[in-house]
Specification:
The protein is of the alpha/beta class and 411 residues long. It folds into two domains: 242 residues, Thiolase/Chalcone synthase (Peroxisomal Thiolase, Chain A, domain 1); 143 residues, Peroxisomal Thiolase, Chain A, domain 1 (3-Layer(aba) Sandwich). It contains twelve helices and 16 strands. The strands form three sheets. Strands 1, 2, 5, 6, 7, 9, 10, 11, 12, 15 and 16 form an eleven-stranded mixed beta sheet that branches. A hairpin with a 2-residue loop joins strand 1 and strand 2. Helix 2 crosses helix 5 and helix 6 crosses helix 12. The relative contact order is 0.19. GO terms for molecular function: 3-oxoacyl-[acyl-carrier-protein] synthase activity. InterPro entries: Beta-ketoacyl_synthase, Ketoacyl_synth_C, Ketoacyl_synth_N, PKS_Beta-ketoAc_synthase_dom, Thiolase-like. It comes from Candidatus Ozemobacter sibiricus.
Amino acid sequence: MPRERGKMSRRVVITGIGAITAYGIGKDALCDGLLAGRACHREIPAGFGRGYEFRSRFYVPFPDFRLADFVDTPYEHAMERTSHLAVAATHLAREDAGRPSLETAAIILGVGIGSLRTAFQSHLAHLGAPGGGRFNRMVIPMTMPNAAAAWVSILFGSHGPAYTVNASCASGTYAIGEAYGRIARGEADIAVTGGVECLVDPSGSIMRGFDGLGALTAAPDGWPRPFTKGRSGFLFSEGGGAVLILEEREQACWRGAPIYAEIAGFASGSEAGSILQMEESGAAIVALLRRLVGTERPDYLNAHGTGTLNNDETEARAIREVFGGAERQPLINATKGFLGHAIGASGAIEAAVTALAIQRGQVHGNVLDDPLDDLNLAQEATERPIRSAVSLSFGFGGHVAGLLLRSALPD
């Protein structure tokens, strides 16, 4: 049976993974797409232009799924797509974990921006703009930032704490870290956590916001190529999500749950510098990594790796400072090189990828043309035992966060 509450040393494991990405529905679709190195980006639609010339010509479309395929609810039309994602991915994760009771579960989800489509449409309707349609009287509950966690709590009957976390592109990682801490401290025995994002906008205005900052890739084929010398920015994703079921280890073992990996640590911090650019020395990332891994030498590192000029160089510099040269570094890959950047969902998707890499002993490769020097980048999909791994996430505003995962070996 689980240990009594109040123990600070409680161990936390991942027992369920639900992923909905541009590769398809479920964890297997995610793994298969990454290991095969399949492209999931396409050219932007003609409707995105509206008189603006995009520097970046490619994007990753929002996953195609129907909420009705996962849950039966009369409230579907009172929910935005971010909430649809959260509920559907929670259903997948709970099924994957062996259908544990979520009655007392903590629901902690990361959202970076959240669904804006209903807000945009209602704004146009309010102004009486041509083609603006009708004003949606549910616009506030549909677009409020906590909606994703609230709907999971409502539809799964969870009476534990339910809230969202926002730390820009690190939101999903922060949410998982919060859930890990609650279980480790004895405040919960089970948690539903991860990150979801829906940035669908038929006019392309959300993508234009990033394009106008010069943050998106200008590559003529759309591949962002993180950690290469020719990188030019990140690949915009309309969203996706991953939800993890976390449990206190003894409870998970007692009920015979599958265990993907143990969460052995979480660390976070802030650079307190620019709202957009990372501080070039990488000091905050260095401090984060040292707190997270201590003297441990992880076998694998899932990097933030966006493909932007400043961020990749800064992250690479920090990795070299903490671990040394390429021969001493963990094997490194960047999931955003294939799936693009799903903002608040990316950290959760990458945590899921990291846990699956540990469980399966498989690490996806990178798209590498003229890589940065002195980095142990995975040239292609690789099979190897992974005892421990790190997943890193950074966000606009100077947020830095990381998770340390370990193989769930028996005592």
